[in-house]
Amino acid sequence: MKKYRLPLGSSRSISPAMHNPLGKNVPHSDVFDPTLLFPIERVQSRVRLGIREPLPFEGLDRWTCYELAWLDSDGYPMLGIASIEYPASSRLLVESKSLKLFLGSMNFTRFASTQEVAQVIREALQSTLEEPGVVVSILPVSAWGEARIVTPPGECIDAVRPTAHHAVRLKSGDNEVEETLHSNLLRSLCPVTGQPDWGSVVIRYRGKALDRASLFSYLVVHRSYQGFHEECCERLFSDLMVACAPSMLWVGCFYTRRGGIDINPERWLPGTTRPVCLGRLARQ
What we know:
two-stranded antiparallel sheet, 32% strand
Protein backbone atom coordinates (compact mmCIF):
# COMPACT_ATOMS: atom_id res chain seq x y z
CA MET A 1 0.00 0.00 0.00
CA LYS A 2 1.01 3.61 -0.42
CA LYS A 3 2.58 5.07 2.71
CA TYR A 4 1.25 8.34 4.09
CA ARG A 5 3.84 9.86 6.38
CA LEU A 6 4.51 13.34 7.64
CA PRO A 7 7.83 14.21 9.25
CA LEU A 8 7.70 14.64 13.01
CA GLY A 9 7.96 18.30 13.94
CA SER A 10 6.71 19.54 10.57
CA SER A 11 4.66 22.73 10.22
CA ARG A 12 1.59 20.61 9.55
CA SER A 13 -0.08 21.70 12.82
CA ILE A 14 0.02 25.41 12.07
CA SER A 15 -0.95 25.46 8.42
CA PRO A 16 -3.32 28.41 7.74
CA ALA A 17 -5.27 26.22 5.31
CA MET A 18 -6.50 24.02 8.15
CA HIS A 19 -9.90 24.58 9.70
CA ASN A 20 -11.53 23.04 12.74
CA PRO A 21 -14.29 20.73 11.42
CA LEU A 22 -16.24 20.81 14.69
CA GLY A 23 -19.69 22.32 14.23
CA LYS A 24 -19.40 22.25 10.45
CA ASN A 25 -20.91 20.02 7.76
CA VAL A 26 -17.92 18.06 6.47
CA PRO A 27 -18.43 15.41 3.75
CA HIS A 28 -17.16 11.92 4.44
CA SER A 29 -14.09 10.89 2.47
CA ASP A 30 -13.23 7.34 1.38
CA VAL A 31 -9.71 8.44 0.44
CA PHE A 32 -7.17 7.93 3.22
CA ASP A 33 -6.08 11.38 4.33
CA PRO A 34 -3.97 12.06 7.49
CA THR A 35 -4.28 15.81 6.85
CA LEU A 36 -7.87 15.57 8.12
CA LEU A 37 -6.44 15.54 11.66
CA PHE A 38 -6.79 18.93 13.35
CA PRO A 39 -4.64 19.93 16.35
CA ILE A 40 -5.69 22.33 19.10
CA GLU A 41 -3.31 24.30 21.31
CA ARG A 42 -3.63 23.44 25.00
CA VAL A 43 -2.22 26.74 26.21
CA GLN A 44 -5.37 28.86 25.77
CA SER A 45 -7.52 26.76 28.08
CA ARG A 46 -4.68 26.50 30.59
CA VAL A 47 -4.27 30.27 30.67
CA ARG A 48 -7.98 30.56 31.50
CA LEU A 49 -7.47 28.17 34.40
CA GLY A 50 -4.33 29.90 35.64
CA ILE A 51 -2.14 26.88 34.83
CA ARG A 52 1.45 27.76 33.98
CA GLU A 53 4.64 25.91 33.17
CA PRO A 54 5.98 23.83 34.75
CA LEU A 55 2.70 21.95 34.82
CA PRO A 56 1.45 21.15 38.33
CA PHE A 57 0.36 17.69 37.19
CA GLU A 58 1.28 14.68 35.13
CA GLY A 59 -1.32 13.02 32.96
CA LEU A 60 -2.50 11.51 29.75
CA ASP A 61 -5.42 11.63 27.36
CA ARG A 62 -6.84 8.22 26.47
CA TRP A 63 -9.23 7.83 23.54
CA THR A 64 -11.21 4.71 22.61
CA CYS A 65 -12.31 4.57 18.98
CA TYR A 66 -15.09 2.06 18.32
CA GLU A 67 -15.68 2.81 14.62
CA LEU A 68 -12.44 1.61 13.08
CA ALA A 69 -12.49 -0.29 9.78
CA TRP A 70 -10.08 -0.96 6.93
CA LEU A 71 -9.41 -3.53 4.18
CA ASP A 72 -6.98 -6.42 4.43
CA SER A 73 -4.45 -7.11 1.70
CA ASP A 74 -7.09 -9.06 -0.25
CA GLY A 75 -9.64 -6.24 -0.04
CA TYR A 76 -11.90 -7.74 2.65
CA PRO A 77 -13.30 -5.45 5.40
CA MET A 78 -11.65 -5.65 8.81
CA LEU A 79 -12.76 -4.20 12.15
CA GLY A 80 -11.07 -3.22 15.39
CA ILE A 81 -11.37 -1.02 18.47
CA ALA A 82 -8.47 1.40 18.74
CA SER A 83 -7.03 2.76 21.98
CA ILE A 84 -4.96 5.94 21.67
CA GLU A 85 -2.93 7.55 24.44
CA TYR A 86 -0.67 10.59 24.52
CA PRO A 87 0.74 12.66 27.39
CA ALA A 88 -0.89 15.75 28.86
CA SER A 89 2.48 17.47 28.49
CA SER A 90 2.02 17.63 24.71
CA ARG A 91 1.62 21.15 23.36
CA LEU A 92 -1.29 20.05 21.17
CA LEU A 93 -4.33 17.81 21.42
CA VAL A 94 -6.37 16.35 18.58
CA GLU A 95 -9.90 17.57 17.88
CA SER A 96 -12.31 14.63 18.15
CA LYS A 97 -14.35 15.16 14.98
CA SER A 98 -11.18 15.43 12.94
CA LEU A 99 -10.02 12.11 14.41
CA LYS A 100 -13.35 10.54 13.44
CA LEU A 101 -12.99 11.86 9.88
CA PHE A 102 -9.40 10.61 9.69
CA LEU A 103 -10.34 7.12 10.88
CA GLY A 104 -13.29 7.09 8.48
CA SER A 105 -10.98 7.82 5.58
CA MET A 106 -9.23 4.49 6.25
CA ASN A 107 -12.33 2.38 5.52
CA PHE A 108 -11.39 1.49 1.94
CA THR A 109 -7.61 1.45 2.24
CA ARG A 110 -5.71 -1.85 2.21
CA PHE A 111 -3.27 -2.67 5.00
CA ALA A 112 -1.11 -5.73 5.34
CA SER A 113 -1.90 -6.27 9.04
CA THR A 114 -3.58 -4.86 12.12
CA GLN A 115 -0.12 -3.86 13.34
CA GLU A 116 0.36 -1.73 10.23
CA VAL A 117 -2.97 0.01 10.85
CA ALA A 118 -1.85 0.88 14.39
CA GLN A 119 1.52 2.07 13.11
CA VAL A 120 -0.05 4.36 10.48
CA ILE A 121 -2.46 5.88 13.04
CA ARG A 122 0.40 6.41 15.49
CA GLU A 123 2.66 8.05 12.89
CA ALA A 124 -0.12 10.40 11.72
CA LEU A 125 -0.88 11.49 15.29
CA GLN A 126 2.79 11.85 16.18
CA SER A 127 3.21 14.22 13.25
CA THR A 128 0.00 16.18 13.86
CA LEU A 129 0.59 16.57 17.60
CA GLU A 130 4.37 16.96 17.27
CA GLU A 131 4.50 14.39 20.06
CA PRO A 132 6.58 11.19 19.89
CA GLY A 133 4.86 9.67 22.93
CA VAL A 134 1.70 8.52 21.13
CA VAL A 135 0.68 4.93 21.88
CA VAL A 136 -1.85 3.09 19.71
CA SER A 137 -3.23 -0.42 20.17
CA ILE A 138 -6.05 -2.18 18.36
CA LEU A 139 -8.36 -4.79 19.89
CA PRO A 140 -9.29 -7.24 17.10
CA VAL A 141 -12.75 -8.77 16.78
CA SER A 142 -11.41 -12.10 18.06
CA ALA A 143 -10.64 -10.45 21.43
CA TRP A 144 -13.82 -8.42 21.88
CA GLY A 145 -15.16 -11.01 24.32
CA GLU A 146 -12.34 -10.05 26.68
CA ALA A 147 -13.53 -6.43 26.95
CA ARG A 148 -14.84 -5.65 30.44
CA ILE A 149 -17.49 -3.26 31.71
CA VAL A 150 -16.48 -1.92 35.12
CA THR A 151 -17.97 0.37 37.74
CA PRO A 152 -16.13 3.47 39.01
CA PRO A 153 -14.11 2.74 42.15
CA GLY A 154 -14.76 4.30 45.53
CA GLU A 155 -17.78 5.88 47.17
CA CYS A 156 -20.49 7.38 44.97
CA ILE A 157 -21.61 10.85 46.13
CA ASP A 158 -24.65 11.10 43.84
CA ALA A 159 -27.13 10.42 46.66
CA VAL A 160 -26.04 13.55 48.53
CA ARG A 161 -28.76 16.21 48.74
CA PRO A 162 -27.30 19.59 49.74
CA THR A 163 -29.51 22.29 51.16
CA ALA A 164 -30.76 24.93 48.72
CA HIS A 165 -28.39 27.47 50.25
CA HIS A 166 -25.32 25.29 50.16
CA ALA A 167 -22.30 27.07 48.69
CA VAL A 168 -21.00 25.73 45.39
CA ARG A 169 -17.38 26.33 46.40
CA LEU A 170 -15.48 23.18 47.27
CA LYS A 171 -15.00 22.80 51.01
CA SER A 172 -12.94 20.51 53.18
CA GLY A 173 -12.55 19.72 56.86
CA ASP A 174 -9.49 19.76 59.10
CA ASN A 175 -9.02 16.00 59.34
CA GLU A 176 -6.83 14.30 56.75
CA VAL A 177 -8.11 11.26 54.88
CA GLU A 178 -7.19 9.00 52.00
CA GLU A 179 -10.18 8.01 49.93
CA THR A 180 -11.67 7.50 46.48
CA LEU A 181 -14.90 9.22 45.43
CA HIS A 182 -16.85 9.15 42.19
CA SER A 183 -19.88 10.70 40.55
CA ASN A 184 -21.79 9.79 37.39
CA LEU A 185 -23.18 13.34 37.15
CA LEU A 186 -20.26 14.79 35.23
CA ARG A 187 -21.50 16.98 32.40
CA SER A 188 -19.97 19.85 30.45
CA LEU A 189 -20.71 21.77 27.27
CA CYS A 190 -18.74 21.69 24.05
CA PRO A 191 -17.12 25.14 23.71
CA VAL A 192 -17.85 25.20 19.96
CA THR A 193 -21.33 23.69 19.54
CA GLY A 194 -22.72 24.17 23.06
CA GLN A 195 -23.91 20.55 23.07
CA PRO A 196 -23.65 18.56 26.32
CA ASP A 197 -21.00 15.94 26.98
CA TRP A 198 -21.72 13.34 29.68
CA GLY A 199 -19.44 11.26 31.84
CA SER A 200 -18.27 10.05 35.23
CA VAL A 201 -15.48 11.45 37.38
CA VAL A 202 -13.28 9.57 39.82
CA ILE A 203 -11.21 11.36 42.46
CA ARG A 204 -8.55 9.61 44.52
CA TYR A 205 -6.70 11.74 47.05
CA ARG A 206 -4.92 12.05 50.37
CA GLY A 207 -5.56 15.38 52.02
CA LYS A 208 -8.13 17.41 53.92
CA ALA A 209 -11.46 15.58 53.83
CA LEU A 210 -13.70 16.90 51.06
CA ASP A 211 -17.17 17.96 52.07
CA ARG A 212 -19.50 15.70 50.07
CA ALA A 213 -22.30 18.27 49.76
CA SER A 214 -19.93 20.93 48.40
CA LEU A 215 -18.43 18.46 45.90
CA PHE A 216 -21.93 17.49 44.73
CA SER A 217 -22.94 21.14 44.31
CA TYR A 218 -19.68 21.91 42.52
CA LEU A 219 -20.31 19.15 39.97
CA VAL A 220 -23.89 20.29 39.45
CA VAL A 221 -22.70 23.81 38.65
CA HIS A 222 -19.98 22.36 36.40
CA ARG A 223 -22.74 20.94 34.18
CA SER A 224 -22.96 24.35 32.50
CA TYR A 225 -19.21 24.82 32.08
CA GLN A 226 -18.01 25.13 28.48
CA GLY A 227 -14.72 23.39 27.83
CA PHE A 228 -13.13 20.46 26.07
CA HIS A 229 -12.89 17.27 28.08
CA GLU A 230 -9.21 17.81 28.84
CA GLU A 231 -9.82 21.32 30.14
CA CYS A 232 -12.63 20.11 32.40
CA CYS A 233 -10.36 17.50 33.96
CA GLU A 234 -7.66 20.10 34.56
CA ARG A 235 -10.20 22.50 36.05
CA LEU A 236 -11.34 19.86 38.54
CA PHE A 237 -7.74 19.00 39.38
CA SER A 238 -6.83 22.66 39.99
CA ASP A 239 -9.86 23.33 42.20
CA LEU A 240 -9.28 20.15 44.21
CA MET A 241 -5.67 21.14 44.80
CA VAL A 242 -6.89 24.36 46.42
CA ALA A 243 -9.75 22.73 48.33
CA CYS A 244 -8.00 19.85 50.06
CA ALA A 245 -4.26 20.61 49.80
CA PRO A 246 -3.55 16.99 48.89
CA SER A 247 -0.26 15.15 49.10
CA MET A 248 -1.73 12.64 46.64
CA LEU A 249 -4.33 13.39 43.95
CA TRP A 250 -5.58 11.65 40.83
CA VAL A 251 -8.58 12.80 38.77
CA GLY A 252 -10.05 10.74 35.93
CA CYS A 253 -12.89 11.95 33.69
CA PHE A 254 -14.53 9.18 31.72
CA TYR A 255 -16.79 10.65 29.06
CA THR A 256 -19.42 8.76 27.10
CA ARG A 257 -18.73 8.24 23.44
CA ARG A 258 -19.66 10.74 20.78
CA GLY A 259 -19.18 9.94 17.11
CA GLY A 260 -17.93 6.48 18.08
CA ILE A 261 -15.14 7.87 20.31
CA ASP A 262 -14.92 8.23 24.09
CA ILE A 263 -12.33 10.53 25.67
CA ASN A 264 -10.79 9.82 29.07
CA PRO A 265 -8.38 12.47 30.38
CA GLU A 266 -6.48 11.74 33.58
CA ARG A 267 -4.41 14.14 35.67
CA TRP A 268 -2.42 13.37 38.79
CA LEU A 269 -0.08 15.04 41.25
CA PRO A 270 3.56 14.05 40.62
CA GLY A 271 4.44 11.15 42.87
CA THR A 272 0.88 9.80 42.87
CA THR A 273 0.49 6.23 41.66
CA ARG A 274 -1.91 6.22 38.73
CA PRO A 275 -4.68 3.60 39.05
CA VAL A 276 -4.77 1.11 36.20
CA CYS A 277 -8.06 1.45 34.30
CA LEU A 278 -9.03 -2.03 33.18
CA GLY A 279 -12.24 -1.77 31.19
CA ARG A 280 -14.85 0.79 30.25
CA LEU A 281 -17.82 2.16 32.11
CA ALA A 282 -21.33 0.98 31.26
CA ARG A 283 -22.25 4.19 29.40
CA GLN A 284 -19.12 4.20 27.26
